[in-house]
Structures are given as C-alpha cells and as structure tokens.
C-alpha cells in the first residue's frame, strides 16, 4: 500500500535511516525498499520528515515479522549500531547482560555487543568497553574471525564511504554522519583541505573523494593507521596525506596552505586557533566545533576565532549550527567562518 517514504540514494540510505530513527520517524510496520538506485524509508510522520528530506508516496510492502530485542525482553532497550557492533550505555551490568543476550537471540544483525565501561578519556579520546557478546569468537569457523582482528573492530558505511575502525582504540561517533556530510558537500575539486583532528578519516576520505587534496593529522597512531587504510579502501590514497602527531608541531610544513580547515575537537579546539590561523591560506573556510551553554551557544567560539584571526584576517560568519544536544542545557555546535587575508 502507498505510505509516506523518505526517498534517498542508496549511498545515503544507512545514514538517513539512522538520522530518522534518532527522531523516531521510521515506520517499522513497513519494509525499507531499494528500487532503481533509490531507497524508500517508510516514515510515521511525513510532515516532520519534510523539513530535511524528499518525502514521496510509495507502495512499501508490509514488514515481515522479525524477532527483535524488545520481543525477547518485554521492553524496548536503547542501543546504537556501528557496523556490526551494537553499543549499549547501561549503568547496571545485569541489565546490560540481559539486553545483550536478547540482541543475540533476536534477528538483529550483530557480531558484537558491547557496553560502555568508561567515559571518553585522555588526549586520545578513547573509552573502555565491556564485550558482552562476541559471535565471531563463539563460531568455530576461522574465516569469521579473520574478517576482524578484534571484537571491537568493525566497518562503518556512511554516504558511499566505508571506514574500518576499532572503537576500543579510536574515537568515532556515527551520530555525526549528517553533519559530516553537510561539510563534505561544500568541498570543490582541487581544494586544499586540512583536518586538524582527523581520527580515522570521516571528513578527510569523503573530501578526497570529491577531488580535494586532503591532509589529516591526529595524535593517535592507531587512528592514523586506520586513516591510511580507509583512504586506500576508498580509492583516494593518492590524494590523502596522513600525519601522526600534534598539529602544532607540523604546522611549519603547511603554513598558509589550507583553503578549508576542520576543527572537530569540542571543549578544546580554541587552544588550537593560533595554529589554524597559521595553516590558513589567503582565503580559508573554517569549520569550528564547540560545546557551549544553550544561553549563548555560538558567541564564545566566534569571539575566540576573531581574537586569533584579526587583524590578519577579516572574519565572516557563514553558518551557526546546533549539531546536537550534548548534555542538559549544553549543545554541540558548529560555526562556519570564512577567513580572508587583509
């Protein structure tokens, strides 16, 4: 029967489905259907989805009955999926174990189930994890284990790119997929871009796929290894330079080089603004991420950018964007500015 569906390209399907699921808009009573290069995702509220997506009427088949974790538990658990790893955030170990067992018993595709065992910590921004289910370890087939070096390594797919990563060794948030795509779509072929805190490459790799010459720097040597591998597996290794170290120690090699800078290090990006200004060319777009109180989410970041860049540069604020809620009364925000040399 005809139901309202968000229509997107298949490359954008998983990220769009996740974004809609975060807003509780996916209609689980109908199947998601692929047809002629497009994916049709049934939604419960067409009006709520129309603000960001193309909503059409589509003859979506009713969803076949599947056993989901909530069917086993009797309540709907909260979890996040990253590739074939399912991530829990439960304070009660017994409840976490019950949920993990229910996920393993359900039809949900999951190789590993983990529970957060610590907050993000240290200058490398990694967590500890409790591995509750590791299906590959329980399988006698060696081919299953060879596909992943550890239980916490997985492949995440996002807007036509794939990223190999280990959540126990690197920081990565799939919730920022839509925001990353927003920034990546602004990149032009031949542009020189520099990600100052690049991680495994979720900005660098798709920017290179758009034809940019991309440099990614990160303190974490494991993340840099994954960045190089992800550049290779996405076919952009020749356009990506991966640097391990503190960006403040490599700035001399790229002074005045960048036409676009990404500063996705909320809480402490302001400590690196002097370095960003040195990296910037005569005209440079800066994507600056911050965590601020809801009363003034953008002001402190804009003030810090002006203090670092003026009078050497004119500073034009292009975009003020709330990316997501971070904590009660606090927002993760992005400020896009253009720096123009005087």
From TrEMBL:
PROSITE patterns: SAM_MT_TRM5_TYW2. One of its GO terms (biological process) is tRNA N1-guanine methylation. One of its GO terms (cellular component) is cytoplasm. Residues 79-341 form the SAM-dependent methyltransferase TRM5/TYW2-type domain. It comes from the Archaea. Gene3D superfamilies: 3.30.70.2580, Met-10+ protein-like domains, Vaccinia Virus protein VP39. This is tRNA (Guanine37-N1)-methyltransferase. It comes from Halogeometricum rufum.
